[in-house]
Amino acid sequence: MNIQDKPNALVPQSVTCGPLPGSKKIYHRPEGRPDIAVPLREIALDPSANEPPVRVYDASGPYTDLEARIDLTQGLARIREPWLNRRQGLETYAGRMVRPEDNGFVGPDRLVPPCPANRSPRKGRDGARVTQYEFARAGIITEEMIFVAARENLGRETMLEEAEARLADGESFGASIPAFVTPEFVRDEIARGRAIIPANINHPELEPMIIGRNFLVKVNANIGNSAVTSSVAEEVEKMVWALRWGADTVMDLSTGRNIHNIRDWIIRNSPAPIGTVPIYQALEKVDGDPVKLTFEIFRDTLIEQAEQGVDYFTIHAGVRLAHVPLTARRTTGIVSRGGSIMARWCLAHHKESFLYERFDEICDIMRAYDVSFSLGDGLRPGSIADANDRAQFAELETLGELTKIAWAKGCQVMIEGPGHVPMHKIKINMEKQLKECDEAPFYTLGPLTTDIAPGYDHITSGIGAAMIGWFGCAMLCYVTPKEHLGLPDRDDVKTGVITYRIAAHAGDLAKGHPAAQIRDDAVSRARFDFRWQDQFNLGLDPDTARLFHDETLPKEAHKTAHFCSMCGPQFCSMKITQDLREEVLAIAEREKGMAEKSAEFLEKGGKLYL
Amino acid sequence: MNIQDKPNALVPQSVTCGPLPGSKKIYHRPEGRPDIAVPLREIALDPSANEPPVRVYDASGPYTDLEARIDLTQGLARIREPWLNRRQGLETYAGRMVRPEDNGFVGPDRLVPPCPANRSPRKGRDGARVTQYEFARAGIITEEMIFVAARENLGRETMLEEAEARLADGESFGASIPAFVTPEFVRDEIARGRAIIPANINHPELEPMIIGRNFLVKVNANIGNSAVTSSVAEEVEKMVWALRWGADTVMDLSTGRNIHNIRDWIIRNSPAPIGTVPIYQALEKVDGDPVKLTFEIFRDTLIEQAEQGVDYFTIHAGVRLAHVPLTARRTTGIVSRGGSIMARWCLAHHKESFLYERFDEICDIMRAYDVSFSLGDGLRPGSIADANDRAQFAELETLGELTKIAWAKGCQVMIEGPGHVPMHKIKINMEKQLKECDEAPFYTLGPLTTDIAPGYDHITSGIGAAMIGWFGCAMLCYVTPKEHLGLPDRDDVKTGVITYRIAAHAGDLAKGHPAAQIRDDAVSRARFDFRWQDQFNLGLDPDTARLFHDETLPKEAHKTAHFCSMCGPQFCSMKITQDLREEVLAIAEREKGMAEKSAEFLEKGGKLYL
């Protein structure tokens, strides 16, 4: 079937491309490895600034590279292919046949065609090294590790003293953030289970990234059609759009028809790790009745998705039969879809969860493709009232148990967390997770710090996300303004991602990450110098900043004006201070040490009254 | 001059009125005081909920009361008039004549007429008790204290046990929040300087509110025209609009023409305390040249505004000559307008600030009208880079010194704070403020926790505001999405206020305020029961919540649907759990203590593996 024959709505035709204003894509090549090209975004500044361009982390993929040729039917360039080709432990095989139930038994007239970029899958041979965890434990540094090490440094290579000062100025609550990230540091963190590189061997298009407490805080964006609405073109665009604004990974939470083929299009065109919740698709295969689920159907779904190249799976193996009654008197019961599905199964059969009982078999599949575990928090609180209760913590303890099993099996693991938690109960979540799960990376949804603001839950949760990112959470799953109310559209995805980039960055700053404050300082200098264009371009969303400025002062001349509309020219404190600055500096120079003397005077009680 | 003769744009014709969806205004009358009517908002729930209506704090004034007759030319009802009439220490006098410079020498064709509701001003007699602080110190409970005590309880009168459990569950960092607020508690907190009731004796229209660490966290919204744009009608509407969405006080930061008369219209129609920064108007009177400022002009402006009824003044008396050189090497210098004006004056004259030197005279004026001090932080950091530096803290120490002088003079005092502060440096601000200023209420702008998101600074600062509110900050000054970029419009004001209501409420929850979680729990129960209308109406912004829901599922029938568009009917975890609930409860009942047994089993190491 030719994809040109299909109606437009079913097939993605194009996506948002091109750099952000003032930015260009550059590639950093680690010393001695010309075959590894690590993307960064460089923001040029006005010549008057007399400052080098600012380099920032860039998760947006080739879509923002003017040189890249984007063809969704071909998929992205397979940059990991040469690396994977060299690995002895991998083999290519025919793979599982796609079955009608994989696409929800959709009729031929509504079938989304598979992405033509598909290839035969690889899997790991028994006993061979496949996962990043296995390589790391064996003392081997992979190309993925070299890639992420360079990526985390944002192109920094010198200025050790400054980096150390930044670290000393932060409060990381016992994290071990280095001044510079080396491949060996990455390897060691992965070997200790403190970080993961979600990188399925069937996702060669991936630009590797790392999730761990001692690295930059990451952000996940959820996309996915639902039984109620949305199309494949929309979903691929949502993925590209989420990455454009700074998502580091994307979860495809699609349900309903065509999900196998939609996933194809997403993965073949995604430079970022893709996560899924396989139980959703397994449920579709049994007509939506949780009671009919079997391990065999679940297992088949894992293999189906692993062959496609999904990088991490949320698996709710911590929802045990004995946990279910702990939720009986909750205000909001079980709010995780996966959790409620498994609870229903356990109760209906009055049996222990098959995810828990056959966890070792699940591990074997995950290992064979290097799909990372995201151990799901099926009993996370759905309201402030249920935060930190026995059900939540009992599950977390089980997740700790499962973490060790997964590691023993050679798998990479992260742990999902709440949910809805008031501010004073957030830290205990982080501490308990670190303890129970031996510092495996924590990946939380929010948490929302209050329940009273439907329509604004990106903000209620952005507060909690910033705090838990500071405390040590490695990745923050975004929440959009539509949470609890509807499906996020394009604007909601952007708002959610930017809110969470703020939270992640606020966390990095507070931890004292040595690269974090460079961008803040560049914005502040631009602000103080009235370099408006630089201020816009250095921000997370240059388009909105420019638009807001132009609403009050639209003229181009105002972009160089030494005042803004807030105060007008007479009242501009920055202008007054700038006018003062020469004078103040001169005084400080002339009356050698006057600043110090002033301080001394004041400290010695230079008070007029009292 | 008849106001009907003026062009429409200059005079406010009407403002947004009517209750929020599902809500009605009620008045609580404290026992034995039928003359005191404390407004509350009551949100009705669907009969199926079988729950009483939820009462929430209501700062919106008579505008949301269907019974109230609103006539902007007449001003609001003067509810404090009988209370003030009974106070022996007050006298009515002719007051200062309005001068052309008060309205920025505006020509007659562009002059906004004064509000016809104006009356002759009152002032306190020498030696008599005038301020809430003086009454409190004398052991006298005023009507204002009775009013705020009832207001803070949100109509709660019983359920002591629950209130105490809430308190015990929170973390208040040494605050002394009571289970119920009594007038005597209010009096005591004011007498100790730990709380203020900003209530100028010339603002009889005021519905009193209290600002202090042991009360609900409050929110201020800034409005004000600027030299560049906006009109009086817009400003009055912005004030009403900000209160509608939950602002507790409003600062009028107008500059330029007509500011005296605009202020008239605002105060006569404001049920909330109005704050100003008098140095702005003083500067207008000397053609915008800080060097020409004199104490006499400043003093005249204080009296002018005190007679109009401004409830609190920001006064930057902590910017001393010796502090200015401390800012010389900052990234963003001085970013407070008031601070930069005073710094310029000090340097130009090479003299100590007249605000500092003649602070006792300022106190005498403040006391005579019971205008509260908001001691301005003229040296607050304007960037993460400048946070918690010597300049900032030197000023804070001076503010502590001035606090004690103001108290000795009988004045009410709060202290302004930063600004831009990364998360790990927020707590030290709160701790230092409590120490230096003997627990006088703290009133902070944000703080912004990162500088990289122009266009989203309501969020960067909402994070910091929630945290400092939790740590003990009494009032949070909002930041809108337009911060650093332009003048906020109506939508920005609403977004800013709601973001800050979230921050304030998140702070109340974390402190364990006994009334806070009632609303969260009501939302959560509505959510779990699929009472969509109740969920919308109980939220901070029912209109937006409903709109977001309707974007995906517009039909009226979907408002009673037992699922939402996020997951669709099959995947709804809440629905699955609800279906399970009976079963789970039955099991828990039948197998007496099964929940406990499960927990025990798990705790004793009921593990399958390991």
From TrEMBL, chains A, B:
Binds 1 [4Fe-4S] cluster per subunit. The cluster is coordinated with 3 cysteines and an exchangeable S-adenosyl-L-methionine. Keywords: 4Fe-4S, Iron, Iron-sulfur, Lyase, Metal-binding, S-adenosyl-L-methionine, Thiamine biosynthesis, Zinc. Residues 19-91 form the ThiC-associated domain. It is an enzyme of class 4 (lyase). Its EC number is 4.1.99.17. Substrate binds at N222, M251, Y280, H316, S336, R337, G338, D377, G378, L379, R380, E416, Y443. One of its GO terms (molecular function) is phosphomethylpyrimidine synthase activity. Pfam families: ThiC-associated, ThiC_Rad_SAM. It comes from the Bacteria. Residues 1-16 have a biased composition (Polar residues). It catalyses: 5-amino-1-(5-phospho-beta-D-ribosyl)imidazole + S-adenosyl-L-methionine = 4-amino-2-methyl-5-(phosphooxymethyl)pyrimidine + CO + 5'-deoxyadenosine + formate + L-methionine + 3 H(+). Its cofactor is [4Fe-4S] cluster. Pathway: Cofactor biosynthesis; thiamine diphosphate biosynthesis. Zn(2+) binds at H420, H484. [4Fe-4S] cluster binds at C564, C567, C572. Residues 1-23, 104-126 are annotated as: Disordered. Belongs to the ThiC family. Homodimer. PANTHER family: PHOSPHOMETHYLPYRIMIDINE SYNTHASE, CHLOROPLASTIC, THIAMINE BIOSYNTHESIS PROTEIN THIC. Catalyzes the synthesis of the hydroxymethylpyrimidine phosphate (HMP-P) moiety of thiamine from aminoimidazole ribotide (AIR) in a radical S-adenosyl-L-methionine (SAM)-dependent reaction. This is Phosphomethylpyrimidine synthase. The gene is thiC.
